[in-house]
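[job 0412] stage=fold_complex status=start
inputs:
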Amino acid sequence: MDKRQELIETATKLFSEKGFENTALSEICEKAGVSKGLISHHFKSKNGLLKEIFKRTTDLIVEMNQTSAKEKSPYVQLKALIESFFIQLEADKLFFQFNLNVIVQPNTREILKDLIMERSAFILQSTEGLFIKIDPKNSKVLSYLFIAELDGIALNYLGIFDDYPLEEIKKQILKKYTKQ
Amino acid sequence: MDKRQELIETATKLFSEKGFENTALSEICEKAGVSKGLISHHFKSKNGLLKEIFKRTTDLIVEMNQTSAKEKSPYVQLKALIESFFIQLEADKLFFQFNLNVIVQPNTREILKDLIMERSAFILQSTEGLFIKIDPKNSKVLSYLFIAELDGIALNYLGIFDDYPLEEIKKQILKKYTKQ
Amino acid sequence: MDKRQELIETATKLFSEKGFENTALSEICEKAGVSKGLISHHFKSKNGLLKEIFKRTTDLIVEMNQTSAKEKSPYVQLKALIESFFIQLEADKLFFQFNLNVIVQPNTREILKDLIMERSAFILQSTEGLFIKIDPKNSKVLSYLFIAELDGIALNYLGIFDDYPLEEIKKQILKKYTKQ
Amino acid sequence: MDKRQELIETATKLFSEKGFENTALSEICEKAGVSKGLISHHFKSKNGLLKEIFKRTTDLIVEMNQTSAKEKSPYVQLKALIESFFIQLEADKLFFQFNLNVIVQPNTREILKDLIMERSAFILQSTEGLFIKIDPKNSKVLSYLFIAELDGIALNYLGIFDDYPLEEIKKQILKKYTKQ
DNA sequence: GATGAATGAGTATTCATTCAT
DNA sequence: AATGAATGAATACTCATTCAT
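[job 0412] stage=fold_complex status=done
writing structure:
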């Protein structure tokens, strides 16, 4: 495989599992079967590698949002969105782990400042596109709350509670947002 | 002041601002005006210092919860809880910063595992004490969702959105939970 | 322009400004708009590039000495030599910088050993050609002293004194060697 | 012996022999029988170590100048100065090697800028103290030339000519400056 | 002639920890 | 309780060089 690609995938996995600060470049290279100099060649530095990875996760998020049904009613769309969120949360813990990590850590947040702003603007706008059809007057604040709720669930599920009743919470959220 | 106390306060500040991994003990000692040997003398290790600090923030949380009006109706209590949360969030960002940091970072989470579990059990139980009076059947899931919502707001306010409309969100949350 | 030539000129400039050890081949290539492989293709190695450049500066020195008036009296020739030295010293600091650098640094001196010996033999012989007409018995020692004086002036002007009175020193040297 | 002192002496020797850029801290520590962290502990960095060493060589120079006979005639003092210079030049090549090295190399010159200026001001002033008694009107330019001559001799002896006739040159210099 | 991906040894520096005083 | 010299492993990064294309 492409060594550059191999490097990105290995680093993504390790950054997610161990955190950015606690992952040594040497470990990445070793696991990727690649020399140490190659990181500097392709990404300039550890920070450069992080930026590249963060960009790619943003691309994934954008992609996920764009493939959701555009024609349907906002409630149907919300339902799809929530369901895919919970599926993703269970299936790919590391994806959420990574994103929480780098956003919360002061050092990585500084490195990714611009990229975080771009991404969050996209997510807000995308969410508002739904709530504007439901409650135009309160669409902004409802969007913020919706995002906060999902982010908080991910945070609690991954970091705080040991036996998190994800299934029940999903049901409750669906009930709340889709009036079922 | 007590050198031990000075050490704890300086370390809390630096861990919050820069993150645990990016704070060197030497910097803490320098800023606290204390020799390097003193940390191992009092706290055994850097991890020991972290545990001590985390315990203290848990004590603060417990204290905050205990001083809230016990006699009043659950809605009044919820209102008081929410309001004190938002006041605290604006007044002491670093307090939330620190807690998010250490909980999300794999390395620090491992170090604090037991303490995190203790704390989260307390918070859940304490919150459930309120919701059990409102909706006994769903009290558990409502508690989880309430906690998730507040945690998510803190996360988004501190780490993700640049111009977070905290005031409007507070109003919306109050409306939602206190039926005003 | 010829890429080989471009490479030599860029490297000369950078070696002079930053010193041989502190100039990375990658920087030379970047500034010259050339790929990294080209250096080893043309010059075999970084040392090879240095040798090539040193040879060229020797050629320049030889050229300068040969264009000076051969027919005139030794005093007239000395005057011309001194004047062209001071003009050159002011106009092309980097030229002297480079030569001092590589001669004084143990590592580069070792690399250029043979070339330095060749060049210094030429300079001594060329200078002695003048002093032999002035004081045949002491021509050798006078030549060494003359060379030392000019080299010392260059050294002090470039490396040691901040506000070196070059003009006055030039006058004094001229007075001393041309009996004006 | 004091480990700090051991470190300084080993580093001085290696910087002189191999040049600053070509001496690895690991080599210094190994030869000094000391751990790598100790340099950072005592001198903060490699640059810090260099500054410390340069300061000490300046102290040596100052000391040498102050112990020379103050009461005697300027010619006697000049003679003593010249003789001690040549003795020192033969006996302690490395001392001159080191000083030429760091002054001529752009990188080290930048690091030592302030210290070089201080030292050269002292040397100029000290030399002028002699020439002012010999030729008050031209004392400054004569001092500069005297310094240039000695520096040039050291430069040529150490770096350029292979079989430098140091003895003859010393005689010639003595003749010139002491009217013997 | 020319490119640039890839290497791997080497470098300065950081830092938690230990320990004699 | 308190100091600070000393350690040594770990880390990110640099860089000349090689080589297939």
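[job 0412] summary: Residues 48-178 of chain B form a domain with the Tetracycline Repressor; domain 2 fold (CATH 1.10.357.10).
[job 0412] exit 0
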